[in-house]
Write the structure tokens for this entry.
Amino acid sequence: MRTPASNKIIRCTAVAVTGLIALSAYAGVVGLLGGGISFGETIDARLPFGSLILAGLALLAFVAVPMTIAAVAAAKDTHRSANLVFAAGLLLVVWIGVELAFIKAYSWFHPTYLAAGVAVLGLAWLMDRPGSRPRRSVSDEDDHAARSRPAGLPRAPADRYLTDHERL
């Protein structure tokens, strides 16, 4: 079983990696939408509809936003963090494959971001391993419910877990 310190290192690493990928993707989006990035006439013509704008919007939707969501989720350490980090990593790997299929040209970006996507997938796997998060016990859930209940409201009766059929 891992220690809380090692779990925090894994989460912080996931935040840093997904955050940096998101930041670089936003830079690419600004470059594509602002006209600062062009791949040359040959490659630009291979883009869907030959549009750098569409390429920038796709980069935003499939890489920048999912990586941002993954970074925020990993920072908050919710029960869905690992799944969101995994989804963002998978989208990045798929993005690289689709990009290569369209532009049919290679650069150092492709293996670099493919490796980054695989690293994100690995971090998600580590985040989801047994012992990576403390489990909440029933008493913890009751304590959480009591703290989140507005002041002055009594505790719900013990039969709150019964279905309507069981109450009859």
About this structure: Residues 4-132 form one domain. Residues 73 and 81 are 5 Å apart (CA to CA). The mean pLDDT is 82. The longest helix spans residues 4-34.
